[in-house]
Write a structure and sequence with these properties.
4 helices; 6-stranded mixed β-sheet; RND efflux pump membrane fusion protein barrel-sandwich domain-containing protein; Helix Hairpins; YknX-like_C; alpha+beta; 6-stranded antiparallel β-barrel; Elongation Factor Tu (Ef-tu), domain 3
Length: 451
């Protein structure tokens, strides 16, 4: 074959190969255009302040809870018929009392004993006064005879007799003083017996010690009561067996246990959002309240929707050695009237705050093998790319992203169930762009019929 013929043959082969590659590319583009787009909804990643919340659950209890009982056994003689459970009572209101005969008799005996002791006290005081007077006279007499003896105007016998009378007067005075002290002690003992008897009388009566609400009344008139009936092993047992319970519902206290790693996220004075678990199904764990990868959580409702609020009252610095948790005490500040004593509640404690963080909606965050990722849409190519992200603080409706997504990125918030990396997408409410429709359904170029 001549060189000219060989060159012509190579040129022909190259032409045919180029035509074949072009057809394959056109077929690939046509097949790609035939792939249906995934309809998605997107949202823009934006910068905003993020407030984290620490999730916990506990029981709300009135700060003032007075468990009232009789201290001794006896028949319940009276239960106030004008007082009902749930009714407000004032301090000093009589709720019930036991049969009073025995304690009142003991009080009367103690009062009689005090009266007798006071009579003896008066006699002892008079005896001491008399002894003091006799001692003063004996001392003056002795001093006079002492002078007379020195002047040889009195005999030694008269001096000795005066000295003996002085010693007797001193002994009598000491005896009278000792008797007075003993009688005073008896008076004190009599007063103590009266106090004891009065306590016994008061213990046979149940009186409201504070202004509050009668929360429990487990008494029946005419029944015999013994202190052993009260079950103190558990709160439930105590509530069902204690004769009466008065609470002040103006302020509640909630004690929660938090894991040790949350210690740096809470502080005294921080705001607390409180949700009653009895306000409806799923109330204890609203949507969005699950912990994120950092162990923090967020309320499932807007912060303004929480009518019951409180503050962190105290944080214990010591860990439970077995459970590795620490105790946080919360006290309510608003909305207490919707709580009940003993009610189980869910709380979110104000945690760390991050200013001007890149955030995405919670709906955009996906997980695979506990690794977070999102789909980002390129508005020019209308394709979705999977991007691994690092998440930070979680707000009520958004989560901060520290790596993987920049502000302004279009993240998919709906339609991710069928979406894969590199898929073509179509936004809700929009038609496919001309760029994604370069060919007609038959695979031919647009306008081919015009050419």
């Amino acid at each position: 074959m001549t060189p000219v013929a060989r060159a012509a043959t190579c040129a022909a082969l190259l032409f045919l190969a180029s035509c074949g590659n072009g057809e394959e590319a056109d077929q690939s583009d046509a097949a790609d255009s035939q792939t249906p787009s995934v309809t998605v909804r997107v949202a823009e990643a934006e910068e905003q302040d993020v407030q984290s919340w620490v999730y916990a659950q506990g029981t709300a209890r009135a700060i003032q809870r007075e468990f009232l009982t009789f201290e001794s056994a006896g028949r319940v003689e009276y239960v106030n018929p004008d007082v009902r459970v749930g009714q407000r009572v004032r301090k000093g209101t009589l709720l019930a009392y036991q049969q009073p005969d025995r304690p009142r008799a003991a009080l009367a005996n103690a009062q009689a004993g005090l009266a007798g002791a006071r009579g003896e006290l008066a006699v002892a005081e008079a005896n001491l006064d008399e002894a003091n007077a006799n001692l003063e006279l004996a001392l003056e007499t002795f001093q006079r005879y002492e002078i007379l003896l020195a002047q040889n105007s009195a005999s030694q016998q008269e001096y000795d007799e005066a000295e003996a009378r002085l010693a007797q007067a001193r002994a009598a005075r000491e005896k009278a003083a000792a008797q007075l002290q003993a009688v005073r002690a008896e008076v004190g003992a009599a007063r103590a017996r009266i106090d004891e008897a009065e306590v016994t009388v008061s213990e046979s009566r149940i009186v409201a010690p504070i202004d509050g609400v009668l929360a429990r009344l487990n008494l029946e008139q005419g029944r015999y009561f013994t202190p052993q009936q009260v079950q103190t092993q558990s709160e439930a047992g105590a509530l069902s067996t204690i004769p009466a319970l008065v609470i002040d519902p103006s302020t509640y206290e909630i004690t929660v246990e938090l894991p040790s790693y949350q210690f740096s996220n809470v502080a005294v004075g921080r705001t607390v959002l409180i949700r009653s678990s009895e306000t409806g199904p799923n109330a204890s764990v609203p949507t969005g309240a699950r912990p994120n990868v950092n162990g923090r959580s967020s309320p499932g409702l807007p912060v303004s929707d929480y009518q019951i609020r409180g503050v962190v009252y105290s944080v214990t610095p010591a860990l439970d050695p077995q459970r590795r948790t620490f105790e946080v005490v919360i006290r309510t500040t608003t909305g207490e009237d919707t709580l009940q004593d003993g009610e189980f509640v869910t709380v979110w404690i104000e945690g760390i705050r991050s200013d001007s963080a890149v955030t995405i909606p919670l709906e955009a965050l996906l997980y695979e093998d506990d690794e977070p990722y999102v789909f980002v849409v390129d508005r020019e190519t209308m394709r979705a790319s999977r991007e691994e992200v690092t998440v930070g603080l979680r707000a009520s409706t958004a989560v901060a992203v520290t790596e993987g997504v920049a502000a302004g990125a279009q993240v998919v918030v709906r339609g991710t169930s069928e979406l894969q990396d590199g898929d073509r997408v179509r936004l809700e409410g929009e038609r496919e762009t001309a760029a994604s429709q370069r060919t007609d359904p038959d695979g031919g170029d647009e306008g081919a019929g015009e050419r």
